[in-house]
Amino acid sequence: MTKPSEFYFPCPRTITYCTQCANPLARIIPPDDNRVRDVCLQCGAVHYQNPRNVVGIVPIWENKILLCKRAIEPRANTWTLPAGFMELKESTSEGALREADEEAGIAGVELGQLFTLIDVPNAGQVHIYYLAKVTDPALNPGPESLEAAYFDFDAIPWDNLSFRTVSSTIEHFLADHQRGQFDIHYYSLNENL
Ligand SMILES: [Zn+2]
């Protein structure tokens, strides 16, 4: 098999062949179901598709917020909070810390409270951010980041943030920091990520 010139994430997430028996799939409403699925008429496997979780942290170091500049699409060259797709067999908080390690390589960080829970139905995603306290600010960004840097609260690069989920989470952080109380914020965004 030859290697493709570039690897990518299919969007929309179409499945053409059965993951169990490799036969072509049909798009039908299975018995006792109420929506169209990718179904294998050979072996009966139903390929359910469900929203994906994006998990991340809001890392704070001495009244500065840590952001990473994305090295990869979508939105390469924009600043983001450390976050990424949750993996199987990990918790949301484990995933958030793993992503922070992969993208920023923070030397020391303590997970704080759940902070934003954001439905993004158009993208088939749920984004979850935890507050986090940086205890050792040394950084070692991974290949998904061009750089990682701490920003003063009044110097956030608002015009060059990656996603509405990121900018709205930072907005909630600054507002809660201003009033001295951090809540859990649950909301929905109509965004195509
Ligand atoms: Zn099959």
TrEMBL record:
Keyword Transmembrane helix assigned: no
Keyword tags: Hydrolase
Cofactor(s), names only, from the UniProt record: Mg(2+)
One example GO MF annotation: hydrolase activity
Residue intervals of the Nudix hydrolase domain: 50-174
InterPro entries: NUDIX_hydrolase-like_dom_sf, NUDIX_hydrolase_CS, NUDIX_hydrolase_dom, Nudix_N
Pfam families noted in UniProt: NUDIX, Zn_ribbon_Nudix
PANTHER family in the record: NUDIX HYDROLASE 23, NUDIX HYDROLASE 23, CHLOROPLASTIC
Protein name from the UniProt record: ADP-ribose pyrophosphatase YjhB (NUDIX family)
